[in-house]
C-alpha cells in the first residue's frame, strides 16, 4: 500500500517538495530558495537550471524527511508560479534565455502594440485576460523577437515553450505538456475550447509547434524517469493559485480563497461556465478533473504583497527577517498617516495601470520605521479589499448569488496575526486560516492522488479541510471607511509615473 502523495511546488522565490498522507497532513518537507535576478529596472528573471537543481534536491530531501522512498509514493503532483516563461531547446533541453518572471514589465510597449485600436480588452472575450505584461504570451513573443536565432529555431520546430510546470515535467519525464489552468494564463488558449487559439497565436507571431499539449489538471501524464521518484506517475498539475483553491476545498460556486505569497491572489469558483468580469478581474480555469467539464474562476491578482516585506528587509534593511515585521508593526497603534502603494510592476487587479509606480504618501517627521512596517502590512489588506469589492460587483451583475461571509486564507503571510486581524477589520468579514496552510502544494497533491485513486473523490478533500483560527472584525465602520478612502487617495498618486 503506497502511503503518501508528493507535491512539487515550484514557486517564485523557492522550490519545495512536500509529502502528504491520506489526511492531508505533512509527512515530509524540503525547501530551497533561488535568486531573483534584476538585470534592468522592470526586468525580473530566474535561472531555470538552478531551479531544476533545487527541485532535484528538495525531492530527495523531502522523501528523506518523511522516511519514505519512491515505493511509498502513489503519485506526484506539480504546482508552479504561473506566467513565468521559459523557452528551451527540444533536443538538448538547454534554456535559450533566462526565465522571464510574471512580475517582469519589459513587454509593456509590445502589449500596447498588440492592443492596437481595440485596447487591452482585444482578446478578453476568448482568453478572459486583458493585454498585460503579466501574462506569458507577450513574454514568449519578446524572446522570439530578441534572442538571436530564436524565431528561426522555433519555426523549424527546434524549441519548446513552457511555464515552469512544463519545464519541471520535461526534466522529470521528457514529456512536453501543461494543464488547462497554466495554459489559461498565457493569453494563447481559448477558454471555451480549452485549446490553443490559432488566430491569437498567429497575431502574437508564436508558432503553435513550440507550445505544450494541453491536458486536464488530474490525470496520469507520464512516469518519472530520473531521480529518487523514478517510476512514480506525475498525475496532477495546477497553477499555484488554482492549486491553493483546490487545496482549500473551494469546490462549489461562490466559494473563495485568498493566498498571501509573493503577491496576493483571490479566486472565486464560478462553476462550469466562465464569467467575464466587468470590474477588472480575470476569468481563468480553476481546475479540470480528467474528462469532467472544466471549472472556472474569477481571479483578482495583486502583484506585490509578500515581496513588499522582502523589499523592506532586503532593499531598505528595516527588518532582519520577514517574521520581524510583525513585532515592529505592533509597536505602534496605527500607520501614522502613512500609506505605501507597492506598484513596483504597475497595478494589477482591479485597476490594471501599467503606468503606475510605487509611492509612500503621508510622510511627516512623526513617522518611524514602525509606522512604515505597519503600512507595508496594511497595503496587503487594502489591495485585497479592492479585489473583494470588484468580485462583489461582478457577482451582483451576473446574479451569482455570492455573499462573502468568510474569507479562507493561506500562504506564508497568514502567520502574521496582526495582518490577519487588520484584514478582517478592513473587509468587515471573518478571516479563516486552515490547519494546513500549505494549500498550494496540497492542491497539487489532491489532483495527483485523485487521478490514481489514492483519494476516492472530492468529498475526501472537503473532509480533510479543518479550521485553525478565525479573526473577526472589530473596527468601527467610520474608521474602516476613513482608512480605505485615504488608501484610495494614495493609490491615485501612483498613476502616470511610467511612460
Automatic annotation (TrEMBL):
Q: Which family does it belong to?
A: Belongs to the FGGY kinase family.
- What keywords appear on the UniProt entry? ATP-binding, Glycerol metabolism, Kinase, Nucleotide-binding, Transferase
State which pathway it belongs to. Answer: Polyol metabolism; glycerol degradation via glycerol kinase pathway; sn-glycerol 3-phosphate from glycerol: step 1/1
What residues does ATP bind to?
Answer: 12-14, 262, 306, 310, 412
In what residue span(s) does the Carbohydrate kinase FGGY N-terminal domain sit? 6-247
Record's protein name: Glycerol kinase
The taxonomy runs: Bacteria, Bacillati, Actinomycetota, Actinomycetes, Mycobacteriales
Top class in the EC scheme? transferase
Q: Which residues bind ADP?
A: 12, 16, 262, 306, 412, 416
Q: Which GO terms describe its molecular function?
A: ATP binding; glycerol kinase activity
One GO term of the biological process aspect? glycerol-3-phosphate metabolic process
Q: Which reaction does it catalyse?
A: glycerol + ATP = sn-glycerol 3-phosphate + ADP + H(+)
Concerning NCBIfam families, the annotation shows: glycerol_kin, PRK00047.1
- A Gene Ontology cellular-component term: cytosol
Write out the residues that bind sn-glycerol 3-phosphate. 12, 82-83, 134, 240
Give the residues the record marks as binding glycerol. 82-83, 134, 240-241
Q: Which residues form the Carbohydrate kinase FGGY C-terminal domain?
A: 257-451
Report the EC code(s) recorded for this entry: 2.7.1.30
Role noted for this protein: Key enzyme in the regulation of glycerol uptake and metabolism. Catalyzes the phosphorylation of glycerol to yield sn-glycerol 3-phosphate.
Regulation of activity is described as:
Inhibited by fructose 1,6-bisphosphate (FBP).
Amino acid at each position: 500500500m503506497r502511503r503518501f502523495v508528493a507535491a512539487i511546488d515550484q514557486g517564485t522565490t523557492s522550490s519545495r517538495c512536500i509529502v502528504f498522507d491520506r489526511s492531508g497532513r505533512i509527512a515530509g518537507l524540503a525547501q530551497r530558495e533561488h535568486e531573483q535576478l534584476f538585470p534592468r529596472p522592470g526586468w525580473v528573471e530566474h535561472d531555470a537550471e538552478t531551479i531544476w537543481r533545487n527541485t532535484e534536491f528538495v525531492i530527495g530531501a523531502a522523501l528523506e524527511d518523511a522516511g519514505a522512498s519512491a515505493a511509498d509514493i502513489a503519485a506526484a503532483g506539480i504546482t508552479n508560479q504561473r506566467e513565468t516563461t521559459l523557452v528551451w531547446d527540444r533536443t538538448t533541453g538547454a534554456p535559450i534565455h533566462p526565465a522571464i518572471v510574471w512580475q517582469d514589465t519589459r513587454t509593456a510597449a509590445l502589449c500596447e502594440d498588440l492592443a492596437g485600436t481595440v485596447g487591452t480588452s482585444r482578446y478578453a472575450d476568448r482568453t478572459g485576460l486583458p493585454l498585460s505584461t503579466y501574462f506569458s504570451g507577450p513574454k514568449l513573443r519578446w524572446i522570439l523577437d530578441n534572442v538571436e536565432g530564436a524565431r528561426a529555431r522555433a519555426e523549424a520546430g527546434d524549441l519548446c515553450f513552457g511555464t515552469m510546470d512544463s519545464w519541471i515535467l520535461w526534466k522529470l519525464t521528457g514529456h512536453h505538456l501543461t494543464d488547462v489552468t497554466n495554459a489559461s494564463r498565457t493569453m494563447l488558449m481559448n477558454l471555451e475550447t480549452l485549446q490553443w487559439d490559432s488566430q491569437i497565436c498567429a497575431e502574437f507571431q508564436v508558432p503553435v509547434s513550440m507550445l505544450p499539449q494541453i491536458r486536464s489538471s488530474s490525470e496520469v501524464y507520464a512516469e518519472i524517469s530520473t531521480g529518487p521518484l523514478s517510476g512514480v506517475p506525475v498525475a496532477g498539475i495546477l497553477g499555484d493559485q488554482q492549486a491553493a483553491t483546490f487545496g482549500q476545498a473551494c469546490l462549489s460556486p461562490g466559494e473563495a480563497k485568498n493566498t498571501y505569497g509573493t503577491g496576493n491572489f483571490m479566486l472565486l469558483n464560478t462553476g462550469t461556465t466562465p464569467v467575464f468580469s466587468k470590474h477588472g478581474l480575470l476569468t481563468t480555469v480553476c481546475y479540470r478533473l480528467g474528462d469532467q467539464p472544466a471549472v472556472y474562476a474569477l481571479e483578482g491578482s495583486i502583484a506585490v504583497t509578500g515581496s513588499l516585506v522582502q523589499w523592506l528587509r532586503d532593499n531598505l534593511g528595516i527588518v532582519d527577517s520577514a517574521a520581524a515585521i510583525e513585532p515592529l508593526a505592533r509597536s505602534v497603534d496605527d500607520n501614522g498617516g502613512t500609506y505605501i502603494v507597492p506598484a513596483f510592476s504597475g497595478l494589477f487587479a482591479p485597476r490594471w495601470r501599467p503606468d503606475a509606480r510605487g509611492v509612500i504618501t503621508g510622510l511627516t517627521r512623526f513617522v518611524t520605521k514602525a509606522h512604515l512596517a505597519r503600512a507595508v502590512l496594511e497595503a496587503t489588506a487594502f489591495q485585497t479589499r479592492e479585489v473583494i469589492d470588484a468580485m462583489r460587483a461582478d457577482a451582483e451583475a451576473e446574479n451569482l448569488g455570492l455573499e462573502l461571509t468568510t474569507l479562507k486564507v493561506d500562504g506564508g503571510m497568514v502567520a502574521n496575526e496582526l495582518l490577519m486581524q487588520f484584514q478582517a477589520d478592513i473587509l468587515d468579514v471573518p478571516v479563516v486560516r486552515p490547519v494546513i496552510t500549505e494549500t498550494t502544494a496540497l492542491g497539487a497533491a489532491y489532483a495527483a492522488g485523485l487521478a490514481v485513486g489514492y483519494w476516492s473523490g472530492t468529498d475526501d478533500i472537503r473532509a480533510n479541510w479543518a479550521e485553525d483560527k478565525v479573526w473577526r472584525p472589530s473596527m468601527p465602520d467610520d474608521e474602516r471607511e476613513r482608512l480605505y478612502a485615504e488608501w484610495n487617495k494614495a493609490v491615485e498618486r501612483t498613476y502616470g509615473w511610467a511612460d
